[in-house]
Amino acid sequence: MARLENRTMRGSVSRWVQLAAAVLLLVGIAIRLYDLTDPPLDFHPVRQLRSAMIARGMYYRTLQDVEPWRQEMAVRQAEGLETLEPQILEWLTVQSYRIIGLEQLWLARVYSSLFWVAGAAGLYLLSRRYAGAGALLTLGYMLLLPFAVQASRSFQPDPLMVSLTLFSVLFMDSWFQEQKHTWSRTLLVGIVGGVAVLVKIPAAFFIAGAFIGLTFAARRFPAILRDVHAWAIILLFILPAALYYGSVLLGGGTGGGEGWRFFVTSLLTSPRFYLDWLAFVLRIVGYTALVGGLTSLVLLDRRGRGLFAGLLIGYVVYGLTFTYHIATHDYYSLPLIPILALGLAAPGRLIIEHMQKALHHHRLLQVLAAGVAAAAILLPLRTARGILAGVDYRGEVGYWQALGDVLEHRSDLMEISHDYGYRLEYYGWVDGAAWMTAEDLELREVLGLGGGEDTVDVVAGQLEGHSLFVVTILSELDRLPVLRSYLETRPVFARGEDYMVYDLRLIEGQ
């Protein structure tokens, strides 16, 4: 089968394709605004509530007409969270809080949704260069895939990272086509890519993969090593993140307290790791998209193959680096969605061209084709809507608020609670520390980092300085017998149908 030559694609996109692309973009925005005000507990609530607490701390810090204890609590919660990435989305959300005068988490969903849809538009422009009308399949897949709908509106930096990465690759692709590089284009590629890496480090894997893939496709290695423009781009890719994280480290900050979860080299020799990773990928993107996207390695021209292969290799290297999360956290594979979407453009063009020939002067077939196209949009939309509407979390807010009142809004708690205590802390206005769960202990043991419970005396020592121990996952105590035996010696401060609160304070006479 003849490969698709990208030089034949220019000017081949008809008005109906442009109209269809505009409709897809509008639909992509609309579905992400559905059920907008539901609390962010539907998708990785630990990650989203973390950002919510950071944003609230930034917002309350400057409020004048707020109860002092709330201001102090909000700031303490935010400052107690370790530095993972620059707080860009949180800052944008806080500016919106200030404009409307209210803390509304749905504003972060709007920003993330717009970032993702903008990135899809950039990917559409890129794929159109290689596969003309086939770019519609690229756009539709990235916007309508049910997992992408749910994940791309979450309060976390990943949608913005993906969007900036796609625009960096778009500009990079144009840069490689220039006969003579201009500094304006060079700076554009480098700055956008550098900001993407600053937003979240994993962007570096995909930007580097695209750059290397396009370099070899253009047969410019090792000549590119002598190109001052190329070195300027590479420097700009690295500089913003290096300056930021350097300042964090020099300022005494950290990159997160769970670093032991990220670079787990022992998993590289475990067949189970690769099977779990593959299962995650198939659950997220589907068999058809995975196989269809990979056909671009045959269908695209040399430059297109280089770009697609570079991005794909970047994803593999990224997964082999973040071993624990790539096989346990589905949103770590979010960047794979636009990569496979790009791969679908080439087979998409062949399908559309074949349909155009078959439908010529056949009115009945045209009607049937329109129905198939409508179903291709409506079916994933229905699935995505079902996911978003499947559970309404609004009723939970009152529960956590009431429990916060029971706990007297203390800031010295120890917790075994949902999402490492973040639900209770955010909605209940309390603060404390999360006790390591049985699952965490088992994972540490598997990874050779030590595991198992300590003795009762050690447990008692670890609880010093905390006034109350809150348990909202009662079954977890059955898995932690040493902790349970200790807590059973303490007075019960409060109890409910699905929670227990133990008093850790010294008892008179003890």
Description:
This protein has 510 residues and is mostly helical. It folds into 2 domains: 312 residues, no CATH class; 110 residues, no CATH class. The protein is 65% helix and 4% strand. Strands 2-1-3-5-4 form a 5-stranded mixed sheet, with no helix packed on it. Helix 21 links the parallel strand 1 and strand 2. Helix 1 packs parallel to helix 6, helix 10 runs antiparallel to helix 16 and helix 20 packs across helix 21. About 2% of the residues have low confidence.
List the helices and strands and how they pair.
Blueprint: H1 15-32, H2 45-61, H3 68-79, H4 88-100, H5 106-131, H6 135-144, H7 146-151, H8 158-177, H9 183-199, H10 203-217, H11 228-250, H12 259-262, H13 271-285, H14 287-294, H15 296-299, H16 302-321, H17 323-326, H18 336-359, H19 363-389, H20 394-406, E1 413-416, H21 422-428, E2 432-434, H22 438-446, H23 456-462, E3 468-471, H24 475-478, H25 481-487, E4 492-496, E5 499-503
Parallel strand pairs: 1-2, 1-3
Antiparallel strand pairs: 3-5, 4-5
Helix pairs in contact: 1-5, 1-6, 2-3, 2-4, 4-5, 5-6, 5-8, 5-18, 6-18, 8-9, 8-10, 9-11, 10-16, 14-18, 16-18, 20-21
Name the poorly predicted regions.
Answer: 4-13
Strand order of the largest sheet: 2-1-3-5-4
Kindly give the count of domains. Answer: 2
Helix content: 55-70%
Q: Structural class of the helix and strand makeup?
A: mainly alpha
C-alpha Rg (nearest Å): 26 Å
Largest sheet: 5 strands, mixed
Q: Describe the global form.
A: globular
The number of helical elements comes to 25
Order of helices and strands: HHHHHHHHHHHHHHHHHHHHEHEHHEHHEE
The total count of strands amounts to: 5
What amount of the residues lies in strands?
Answer: under 5%
The pLDDT mean sits at: 89
For the record, give the distance between the C-alpha atoms at the N and C termini, rounded to a whole number. Answer: 84 Å
